[in-house]
């Protein structure tokens, strides 16, 4: 068994799609209408057959509350691996991304946390 799709709740699918592709650099894999929303998945440009990230609308009250509470608690919704956290931090800062935690070394890893502008904190990590 392996993870093939994981999701993140977003307030606005179009805004999330733009941020995750144009700013972060993910590649759109699927964009299929599903009622009033869409099944939008993204993949890493380096692993286009790998795990997909679903941009899940937070229109369900439970989803919205969950998203708001983990954000308010400073808890990242997910984590992305990067080759160099400090370089990625600088690149994203140049694109206007707001960080809640600058690159911080913790033992064998370095972490940073940013606001995805769609209701989530996202952690990036370098081993």
TrEMBL record:
Coiled coil: none
CDD domains registered for this protein in UniProt: VOC_like
Domain of life according to the entry: Bacteria
VOC domain mapped to chain residues: 1-127
Gene3D superfamilies: 2,3-Dihydroxybiphenyl 1,2-Dioxygenase, domain 1 (3.10.180.10)
Any single Pfam family the record assigns to this protein: Glyoxalase
PANTHER family, A to Z: GLYOXALASE/BLEOMYCIN RESISTANCE PROTEIN/DIOXYGENASE, GLYOXALASE_BLEOMYCIN RESISTANCE PROTEIN_DIOXYGENASE
Protein name: VOC family protein
Organism: Brevibacillus choshinensis
């Amino acid at each position: 068994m392996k993870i093939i799709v994981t999701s993140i709740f977003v307030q606005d699918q179009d805004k999330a799609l733009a941020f995750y592709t144009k700013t972060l650099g993910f590649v759109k894999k699927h964009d299929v209408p599903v009622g009033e929303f869409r099944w939008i998945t993204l993949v890493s440009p380096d692993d286009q057959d790998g795990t997909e990230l679903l941009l899940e609308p937070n229109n369900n009250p439970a989803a919205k509350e969950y998203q708001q509470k983990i954000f308010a608690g400073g808890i990242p919704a997910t984590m992305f691996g990067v080759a160099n956290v400090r370089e990625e931090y600088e690149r994203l800062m140049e694109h206007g991304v707001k960080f809640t935690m600058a690159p911080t070394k913790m033992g064998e890893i370095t972490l940073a946390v940013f606001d995805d502008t769609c209701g989530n904190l996202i952690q990036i990590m370098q081993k």
